[in-house]
Amino acid sequence: MALSPDDVVTKQFQHVRFKEGFDPDEVDDFLDEIVVEWRKALAENEELKAKLAAYESGAAAPAKAAEPAPAPAPVVEAAPVAGAAPAASAGIIELAQRLHDEHVAEGIAQRDQLIAEAKSQAASIVSDAETRGREELAKLDRERAGLESKITELRNFERDYRAQLRSYIEGKLRDLETTATTSGAQPVSSLGL
């Protein structure tokens, strides 16, 4: 059975009743087929590599003489393939290089775009932070000015209150002294109080 990659992909195994999974014998048979085909492909690959090496080294002429009549046809077919292979390889390499260059250019463009976006976002964040900082400083300055004016008011109130209290107490002392002298008693200041 010639096995193709599509055969491997589309292979369907029958489910087994009374247990999970596929029929182990069917799976083993299919894997055996894969192994046989794979070994054939590897052997053919090695044979073609040997023929190519012999052709490139110039040993193709003695091989032609020793082989039967049908054998030279594959060697002749190998010659155009061998000649076409470097051109095809060069085309594939050129295509791969072009794709690589495109991907690198695309990556560089994305990198530059991301860097530009990050710088823009960073500038915006810094600007917002500076604006908020200035607003907070202005707010704190207003609060400080308000607190300083309250402190000044309280100090003035304290000074005025002390002055009023002192004048009130002094007035009461004078009244006390005047009432004491009019009544004939000793003044409080002479008692040592």
Structure description:
With 193 residues, the protein is mainly alpha-helical. It has 2 domains: 1-73, no CATH class; 93-179. It has helices at 5-10, 24-57, 60-66, 72-183, 188-191. The longest helix has 112 residues, at 72-183. The chain starts with a helix and ends with a helix. Mean pLDDT is 79; it is low at 62-82.
Q: What is the number of helices? A: 5
Q: C-alpha Rg, in Å?
A: 54 Å
Total tally of structural domains: 2
User: Mean of residue pLDDT?
Assistant: 79
Largest sheet: none
Low-confidence stretches: 62-82
Question: What is the H-and-E element order?
Answer: HHHHH
- Helical coverage, percent range: over 70%
Number of β-strand runs: 0
Distance between the termini: 133 Å
Alpha-beta classification: mainly alpha
Strand fraction equals under 5%
3D shape = elongated
Question: What's the gist of this structure?
Answer:
With 193 residues, the protein is an all-alpha fold. The protein has helices spanning 5-10, 24-57, 60-66, 72-183, 188-191. 0% of the residues are buried.
Protein topology:
Blueprint: H1 5-10, H2 24-57, H3 60-66, H4 72-183, H5 188-191
Subcellular location: Cytoplasm
Family: Belongs to the DivIVA family.
Main location: cytoplasm
